[in-house]
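Run GreA/GreB family elongation factor through structure prediction, thanks.
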Amino acid sequence: MRAPNCGERKLTELDYIRLKKFTAPGTFPELADILNEAELLPSRCIPPDVVTMNARFVIRDLKLQRRHMMAVCYPADAEPATGAISVLSPAGLGLLGLSVGAVARWVGPAGEETVAQIEGILFQPEATGDYVT
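Sure, done. The structure for GreA/GreB family elongation factor is below.
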C-alpha cells in the first residue's frame, strides 16, 4: 500500500535520519516512500501543527465520528492501548508528517480502512524547544 497524502508531509531532518535506519533494502517500502517525498526541515523550522515523532495529537475518525488521542513513536515505545502507535504501523505511516486539518487513510490489521482527520496537536517536542527527542 502506498502512503497517502504524498507531497503534503513535512519531517524534521533529525526524524529523517533516525527513520532512515528502518529502510534497509526490501524493508518498509512505505516508510522509504515517505522519506523520499517529504519536505525536510531543521527541527527549529518545523511548523507547530505538524505530526512529528513523539508528538501527541487528536484525530477524528471520519467514518465513526470518534476522536482519539495518539502519538507516533518508535517501535520499542509503542503501546497501542494508550494511543502510542509505532511509526511502522499503518496508522503511524499514514499520519507522520501531516498537518492539522489533513486527512489520512490507512488499512488496519483486520483489513478495515480508516479515514481520519488530524484535529489538533496537543504536544510537539520541537514546539517546546526539544530538538533531540
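Residues 10-126 form a domain with the Chitinase A; domain 3 fold (CATH 3.10.50.30).
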